[in-house]
Design a protein that fits this description.
With 255 residues, the protein is an alpha/beta fold. The protein is 40% helix and 12% strand. This is GDSL esterase/lipase CPRD49-like.
Length: 255
């Protein structure tokens, strides 16, 4: 690996995670925000459900790794919540199995290190009409906003029982009045506006969590000094500020 060693934040999930670096997504925003502070590692797998995630859990998060992640953000549920296909194929996972799978994922991640923190993201809502238009289908979508709600609530309940921090995406996205038109690219995956909501909720968790050390971006040290004679300084007569300091830019956007 390249050095110096930084905290590792792993994003683990299905397409909501895999596509989080597209369309000014939430993964890309976090990578920009934590530049020179932490490494954001993408482990997203489009089309996957919690059952498939369990099959590779030891490979993605080996217990004997020399360096364990400081934070793992996990999202599964949207594909699990799809209606069963008559063929028996498809990503649907029955609700009791989904709950058990997420429990096993949480237990595995907790076992990695006493310093590994976990955030579960619950299933976000969907725009069923936009899905029909984007996929040009007239019949059964296999997805419904109601099933997303059911799996979201199950994720939140399990998280509370296991003392795992969780973010209720199903609710927070719908708090925006125009969420149906603003938050998605295709009725399922998040637009830049939807991703901004996700980032704000993640940052709220990191700011308020009583974790030692804190993982909020303002609490982590910047790798190598930003002081440099190559850049001018700005002064108001009282304070001097290095104008190359990227934290000024981040503060304006996210504080």
């Amino acid at each position: 690996m390249v050095g110096p060693e930084r905290p590792q934040f792993v994003l683990f999930g299905s397409s909501i995670v895999q596509f989080s670096f597209s369309n000014e997504g939430w993964g890309a925003i976090l990578a920009d925000l934590y530049a020179r502070k932490a490494d954001i590692l993408l482990r997203g797998y489009s089309g996957w459900n919690s059952r498939r995630a369990l099959q590779v859990l030891d490979q993605v998060f080996p217990k004997d790794a020399a360096v364990q992640p400081s934070l793992v953000i996990v999202y599964f549920g949207g594909n699990d919540s799809m209606r069963p296909h008559p063929s028996g194929l498809g990503p649907h996972v029955p609700l009791p199995e989904y709950i058990e799978n997420m429990k096993k994922i949480a237990l595995h991640l907790k076992s990695l290190s006493t310093k590994t923190r976990i955030i579960f993201l619950s299933s976000p809502p969907i725009n069923e009409q936009q899905i029909r238009e984007s996929l040009r289908v007239l019949g059964d979508l296999g997805r419904s906003n109601e099933s997303c709600r059911i799996y979201s609530e199950a994720c939140l309940k399990l998280s509370q029982e296991m003392n795992v921090t969780a973010i209720d995406l199903w609710t927070v996205l719908q708090q925006r009045d125009d969420w149906l038109t603003a938050c998605f690219t295709d009725g399922i995956h998040l637009s830049s506006e939807g991703s901004k909501i996700v980032v704000k909720e993640i940052l709220k968790v990191l700011r308020e969590a009583e974790w030692e050390p804190s993982l909020h971006w303002r609490s982590l040290p910047t790798e190598f000094s930003e002081d440099s004679s190559l850049y001018p300084v700005a002064t108001d007569g009282k304070t001097t500020v290095n104008v190359s300091n990227s934290d000024m830019h981040r503060t304006l956007l996210w504080d």
